[in-house]
Write a structure and sequence with these properties.
Blueprint: E1 5-9, H1 13-24, E2 28-33, E3 44-47, H2 49-57, H3 62-65, E4 69-71, E5 74-78, E6 84-89, E7 101-104, H4 105-120, E8 125-127, E9 129-136, E10 142-148, E11 153-158, E12 160-163, H5 170-175, E13 183-196, E14 204-210, E15 213-219, E16 230-239, E17 253-255, E18 268-269, E19 272-273, H6 274-279, E20 284-291, E21 299-300, E22 303-305, H7 307-311, H8 320-338, H9 342-364, H10 370-379, H11 392-406, H12 410-415
Parallel strand pairs: 1-2, 1-12, 2-8, 5-14, 12-22
Antiparallel strand pairs: 3-7, 4-7, 5-6, 9-10, 10-11, 13-16, 13-20, 14-15, 15-16, 17-20, 18-19, 21-22
């Protein structure tokens, strides 16, 4: 092959972020996506400032993101009796040079797809084609084994293959055939959106309750100027003490409100009525909070993993999608330095596999919601004066440690140079 070609297994947020990055640095790529038609699936996710910075550098700015979400102004934890445990500004209000965005996952996904095919052409994304395995070749290239929509099998050879095919990744399964099954710790989440007036600042991310019994609420659209109503994303969550007593499900299963709303009876405050919020949803999905145990390496020859295929993690830190964007950019950095080579994949693996594996376990341990555990342990979840339960300095130190681990400590991020220098290109034939 005269020019390197990167094959990407999976056209989700991670795969498309990588495709956009490769297009930006002059590397040819093709995305193989299993579904026949991309649709705006899912509900709300958060994109942290470190990832928003990268999106801006990809030419996806505030005007674009405002069409699929809203800048977050506040992050807050609230106890069972409605009193604040911890609250802080977010994004630019916190001093970052970039906002944090709460977005509709499906609309954000479609935004990335539109941007990529506008720049690279529709043929650069092949729908209805699932990568089911790979072969590392003697000449250093890699062959992807692809299942077509009609069930037939084809093979494509390229310079490298990136597995961005999610938590059920076939690429990872081949790379790590002895990996443990998906891990479920007993938490079940019911997700939905309701058109209602946003609470607190009007763009607040609020965790309410205890670690084992809580609501997460935040808007994912700007309020309608006439009605004041916005699309508010909510997650209702219960953790069972004995996970083996409950059957796990896939990522999403549509359910009825009556299946779970009884868990939140009486959650009524002068600033929020949780039962009313839940009843206002048009559709509700149930899914278990699941992740995968970290693996020792994300690389096998000319193949590497990224996104959920590499590091599926609990959403407690709101940084799964953000880390997928960072993965994409770091792969770009590695290729700028080492070319489109296995050495680039090794450099990427060396930089991220260890630290992100630690983040998986940190999120499994409740991530920033660990403060709810501390409150529950010390006072049962209800209090009048949080400072008598957890002093302010201790709360601030806890959050600072999480931000540092997740890669969005303010001073470090603001002072960092661009991940990929403006105009940087991989040398032809590298």
């Amino acid at each position: 092959m005269s020019q390197p070609v990167v094959m990407i297994a999976g056209g989700g947020i991670g795969g498309l972020s990588l495709a956009l990055t490769l297009q930006q640095i002059g590397v040819a790529c093709v995305v193989f996506e299993a579904v026949k038609e991309l649709r705006p699936l899912g509900v709300g996710i958060n994109i942290q400032p470190n990832a928003v910075r990268e999106l801006y550098d990809l030419g996806i700015g505030a005007d674009d993101l405002d069409q699929v979400g809203v800048p977050a102004k506040e992050w807050a934890l609230v106890g069972l009796n409605g009193n604040d445990i911890y609250a802080e500004p977010r994004g630019e209000l916190a001093g970052y040079n970039w906002p944090q965005y709460a977005v509709h996952r499906g609309k954000f996904h479609m935004l990335l797809y539109r941007k990529f095919i506008e720049r690279a052409g529709k043929d650069a994304v092949r729908l209805g084609q699932r990568v089911t395995g790979y072969e590392n070749n003697a000449d250093g290239s890699v062959t992807a084994i692809i299942e077509q929509a009609d069930g037939s099998e084809t093979r494509e050879t390229g310079t490298i293959l990136i597995g961005a095919d999610g938590i059920h990744s076939a690429v990872r399964a081949q790379m790590h055939p002895d990996q443990p099954p998906i891990h479920w710790g007993g938490a079940v989440m019911w997700r939905g959106t309701t058109m209602t007036k946003p609470i607190r600042t009007g763009s607040s991310f609020v965790g309410l309750g205890t670690h084992k019994h809580r609501m997460v609420i935040y808007p994912i659209s700007h309020p309608d100027p006439e009605t004041g109503l916005a699309q508010v994303n909510w997650i209702a969550e219960v953790t069972y003490d004995d996970p083996s007593a409950h059957e796990t499900t896939g990522w999403f299963r549509q359910v009825e409100l009556s299946d779970f709303t009884h868990h939140f009876d009486g959650w009524e405050y002068d600033w929020l009525n949780v039962p009313d919020l839940l009843r206002g949803a048009e559709v509700v999905y149930e899914n278990p909070m699941i992740d995968r145990d970290p693996v020792s390496s994300w690389r096998d020859g000319a193949v590497a993993l990224m996104g959920d295929a590499a590091h599926a993690m609990y959403p407690t830190g709101s940084n799964g999608a953000s880390q997928a964007v960072i993965d994409a950019r770091e792969l770009g950095v590695a290729m700028l330095e080492h070319g489109v080579t296995a050495a680039a994949l090794e450099a990427y693996n060396d930089k991220l596999c260890g630290p992100v594996s630690e983040l998986i376990l940190r999120n499994r341990g409740a991530g920033p919601f660990g403060l709810l555990n501390m409150v529950n342990d010390r006072c049962g979840g209800e209090f009048d004066d949080i400072d008598k339960v957890i002093p302010a300095a201790e709360r601030a130190e806890f959050m600072a440690k999480y931000k540092a681990a997740a890669g969005f400590a303010i001073e470090k991020l603001n002072s960092a140079e661009r991940t990929i220098p403006e105009g940087a290109k991989v040398e032809s034939g590298a």
